[in-house]
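[job 4471] stage=fold_predict status=RUNNING
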Amino acid sequence: AAQGTMNDPSFKAYLGDGVYASWDGAHIVLTVENGGYVTERVCLDETVWANLLRYHARLERLLEPPVEPVP
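[job 4471] inference complete, writing structure tokens
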């Protein structure tokens, strides 16, 4: 597995709305940046990342349009 760090640009991705994701070797690091300056930082370990994925799946189910019955 790759062992990059936050300073390795290949591990940094822009997600939108000023939010970036990167990898520090142990965590997914989410940062909010304004003009190149980090204003907020959240580090997601394996457990938190798994919980976020479960939350996303739950939201998809909750927000799925209802299936119309076939007449």
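[job 4471] summary: The beta strands are 13-16, 19-23, 28-34, 37-44.
[job 4471] exit 0
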